[in-house]
Amino acid sequence: MSFDFAMRLVAAFACGVAIGLERQLRQRTAGLRTITLVTSGACLFVTLGMLTGNGVAGVTQIAAYVVSGVGFLGGGVIMRDKGSIQGINTAATLWCSAAVGVLCGTGHYGPAIAGTGVVLMTNTLLRELSQIINATPVSSADLVRQYMLTVVGRQEDEIHIRTLLSNAMESQPLSFHSLTSEDAAGDASKVKVTATVRMHPKDQAKLERMASRMSMERGVSSISWSATDVETTPE
């Protein structure tokens, strides 16, 4: 029994090292030691259930607790930075590493090795594929971007500017998300009209053409636009 236990622990250790090396080489939050500890720990917990003679039901229950525990561990490596989520792939790798450790602990070496191979291929081959997909033209992506077009002109030309914006949007065609007017900062004789539009980035050229034409209109002293990404609409 001791030899069988050692084999399971060595298998979990080896699989953890294989997965952890790839993470360590990429300088991820969870690297060689963390991944190896997760696989070895999962193996030890499951082996404990087998050593105590609790049967399949006991081993399955312990494996479920391992999954929950690794879930909390994975949550610790997920960070939100300026609207973007970082660490999800590392958390998923920890989760899969725990599954590999559980397989080693139950003596299923073949599936454990196969699982290790899948994790490694996912983090290497599919990483390259995802980078190629991300480099494709943005027109094929499901993106929504918010554009703010700001026009500054004389107070008496406010209605004229709003009409220009409405006509220009209709001719593109585009649609307003909002249209507001306010006094220009530092100059009470000027008005600032801001049009907010949500559209796909591939249509940005339409906005640029519209801004270029409006800059030559009477009553328009300056015009500018900016863009920010927004959350996509759920499917």
Task: Provide an overview of this structure.
It is a multi-pass membrane protein. InterPro entries: MgtC-like_C, MgtC/SapB/SrpB/YhiD_fam, MgtC_SapB_SrpB_YhiD_N. Belongs to the MgtC/SapB family. Pfam families: MgtC, MgtC_SapB_C. α1 (2-25) packs antiparallel against α2 (32-51) and α2 (32-51) runs antiparallel to α3. A hairpin with a 6-residue loop joins β4 (178-183) and β5 (190-199). Strands 4-5-3-6 form a four-stranded antiparallel sheet, covered by helices on one side. The protein has a two-stranded antiparallel sheet with strand order 1-2. The radius of gyration is 29 Å and the shape is rod-shaped. The mean pLDDT is 81. With 235 residues, the protein is α+β, with helices and mostly antiparallel strands. 26% of the residues are buried. The chain has two domains: 2-134, no CATH class; 142-229, Alpha-Beta Plaits (2-Layer Sandwich). The longest helix is centred in the middle third of the chain and has 26 residues, at 109-134. It contains seven helices and six strands, in the order αααββααβαββαβ.
